[in-house]
């Protein structure tokens, strides 16, 4: 979920607007309270220009489309990249080495499955939905989460270049964690997007790291610190309306009584 202006995002990480590419316009970046795969999202990346490192804000399609893909629709299945396998997967390994980015959000949604008496996921009914959605966010509305991401350029049959991205994920924290927030995150889902503190973000974006071993070391670095970031978050039960992408308004993050 993105609810901050492009200028605020750039100021937060000292980035500049990226060079204008066809189909990309930072002025069109608007608050989105229900981001779904294939939606355009802001990303920050670093690139080398005559030996100078440039940190830039761009707009990308969420769902990475590898450069060799035959059609753009493959990106709808590649909105997340598993940290354990990204460096080896054909869809992500080139981006892991040379095209790393960070994807900002003010929070994100996750769904907790309701369990039946047998311990298995219960079937939903009108009065008892199968899942409880949560809005997971930093304690301050002025803070951003900066997710570790990957990006790629893909050229469509008409010759237009499409920028796309994916978010790195890791296994959820130990459900027996002494930290209340981490234990709650583990209870909601078995995967978690990898968030970065500022030092990890700076290292992750560094374009001078462009080999397999160096990139793998960066994956291990950001995964090693992500629970420290996640432990600062808050979890808020929200209404079922967030389950439909047709709904997109600030009311989606209003708290409700938890079903469980």
Tell me what portion of residues adopts beta-strand conformation: 25-35%
Number of domains: 1
Mean of the pLDDT scores? 91
Our Rg estimate from Cα atoms comes to 18 Å
What is the assigned CATH homologous superfamily?
SOS response associated peptidase-like
Write the CATH architecture name. Answer: Alpha-Beta Complex
- Could you tell me the CATH topology label: hypothetical protein yedk fold
Query: Helix and strand succession?
Result: HEEEEHEEEEEHEHHE
Q: What are the segments in which pLDDT stays under 50 over at least 5 consecutive residues?
A: none
Query: Number of helical segments?
Result: 5
| Terminal-residue CA separation | 24 Å
What does this structure look like?
With about 260 residues, this protein is α+β, with helices and mostly antiparallel strands. It has a single domain, classed as Alpha-Beta Complex (hypothetical protein yedk fold), CATH 3.90.1680. A 5-stranded mixed barrel has the order 2-3-9-8-5. A 3-stranded antiparallel beta sheet has the order 6-7-11, with helices on one face. β8 and β9 form a beta hairpin. It starts with 5 loop residues before the first helix and ends in a 23-residue tail after the last strand. The model has no long low-confidence stretch (mean pLDDT about 90). Its EC number is 3.4.-.-. One of its GO terms (molecular function) is single-stranded DNA binding. Keywords: Covalent protein-DNA linkage, DNA damage, DNA-binding, Hydrolase, Lyase, Protease. Belongs to the SOS response-associated peptidase family.
